[in-house]
Amino acid sequence: MITLRKNQTEPIRKAIEFFNEKKPVPSLIVLPTAWGKSILTAFTAKSIDDKLLVLQPSKELLEQNYKKYISLCEFETQAGIYSASFGQKNIDKITYATIGSIKNLGKLFKQLGFKKMLIDEAHLYPREADSMLGTFLAESGITHVLGITATPIKLQQNTDLNGERFSKLVMLTSKSKKGNFFKDIIHVGQVQEMVELDFWSKLQYNAAGFDGSMLVYNSSKSEYTEESVARAFQANNIHEQIKQQLDANSDRKHILVFVPTVQEAISLSRQYPDSAAIYGDMHKAERETVIHDFRSGRTRVIFNVRVLSTGFDYTGIDCIIFGISTASIALYYQIVGRATRIDPDKNDALIIDLAGNVARFGRVEDITFEKGKIWRMFGTGGKLLSGIPTHDIGKVTKEDVKRMETAAPERTKIMEIMPFGKYKGERITDIPVEYKQWMLSKFEWTPANENLRRSILTYMR
Questions:
Q1: CA 245 – CA 354 distance, rounded (Å)
Q2: Considering just the CA atoms, what is the radius of gyration of the chain in Å?
């Protein structure tokens, strides 16, 4: 029998209460990396009386969730697996499935009386009504949908007033052109909570100076181009810095190093002892050998290219070295997350940043999801991370949001009508959000036009 940790009882209770409500709206529970989402899934499945469909994005997560349920319920399982990739197609009271396998079976699940669904890694599913998930939900008549995720955000592409594309992170609960299937968040387990309760390995940060002038955004401004990341790597001599850091931290036993190109990974692995390279085009057997040797301690360092940022949960990792720059807070969170799991053989984990990421995003322990008038994501120093263009992160803070949400119109003289420009005479609340974002980022704001700035922030959605 599993003994629940201090921070696991409340979200499990809320999940069970959600499934017992008569008419709930689709909702989310946010739980940090290493919280134990499969435990919530298992306890919830065991505790409700009705049939439950548990959806996972991959065969690996399905197996993990199913095994956790079996270990909790021992022999009274009443659980089946419906997944072609898993090689089983069994429907039971609790059915663990992948969406690709059940996408055309909505009517069947409706006939069998399924009304409730739990979605693991809910942020990975598209919001469109014509997606596989949307089609299944429409045909199945599912009435209760609860999603679980560590990152309740989606990258959304937009076009500014000049026709230029840009990207921003939006909360899954925020309104958008593609809709917002999830309407509310019923519980948030903050990252700092995990740290304070000693369920996360303590993290130490070592950030080197970095010249990011060569970094160039891609066409959607969602990430830096691979070419510019490689150029910045060379210009900052990160190749040599990596070797110096490995020598200086010889006490670290299991190190992941992220580099921009396969050539760099192979070159470094040939130059540095007890190391190996890993990348996407490697033969599966060769990759598995590298990972096996790393886990066993025969290999101390893995130089990797776009591999092992997610889904690699070896607890012994005690050092991460960033040799790459990223504009993606999600990727940054995922990479650092590889070192957050506790392990009896490590006291902490060292995050060495040679590429300007900590300066850009700060510590992952500082990430919070907070609800004012709407849900938002904040980072170090109160930086607003959601709802604004990726390239403008840092220009709006939590204090700006607080002023926006608490300002009394009669005291701050909030304006309702646009006084000039393309939308002169129109209500500010009706002006496209892209135009308001453009004004906030491009205008020179002074005390003379502070009321207009506050008005735009007040009506920003």
A1: 10
A2: 24
Average confidence (pLDDT) over 396-404: 84
Sole residue written with tokens 């930086």: 383
Helix/strand/coil percent split, the chain, to 5:
35, 20, 40
What is d(CA 330, CA 131) in angstroms, rounded to the nearest whole number? Answer: 23
Give residue 20's identity as a one-letter amino acid code: N
355 Cβ partners below 8 Å, 6+ apart?
210, 212, 229, 232, 233, 236, 238, 322, 323, 324, 325
Find out whether 403 and 390 touch, Cβ atoms under 8 Å: no
Smallest Cα–Cα separation from 255: which of 305, 322, 295, 300?
A: 300
pTM higher than 0.90 for the full model?
no
- What is the bridge-based pairing of β-strands 79-83 and 319-322? unpaired
70/147 Cα distance (integer angstroms): 21
- In this prediction, residue 34 has a pLDDT band, given cuts at 50, 70 and 90, of confident
Summarize pLDDT for 316-357 with one digit per residue, the tens: 999 999 999 999 988 898 899 889 989 999 999 999 999 999
Return the DSSP state at 429: G
C-alpha 272/C-alpha 259 separation (Å) is: 14
Nearest-angstrom CA–CA distance, 252 and 272: 15
Query: What DSSP state is assigned to residue 21?
Result: S
What pLDDT, on a 0 to 100 scale, did the predictor assign at position 177? 64
Cβ–Cβ < 8 Å for 392, 329: no
Q: Strands 27-30 and 144-149, how do they pair?
A: parallel
Angle between helices 450-458 and 398-406 (to 10 degrees): 80
Nearest-angstrom CA–CA distance, 388 and 96: 36
Provide the pairing of β-strand 94-98 with 52-56. parallel
Residues in CB range of 397: below 8 A, 6 or more apart? 381, 382, 383, 384
Q: What's the CA gap between 400 and 377, in Å, rounded?
A: 14
Order of strands, sheet of 88-89, starting from the edge strand that comes earlier in the sequence: 88-89, 79-83, 94-98, 52-56, 116-120, 144-149, 27-30, 184-188
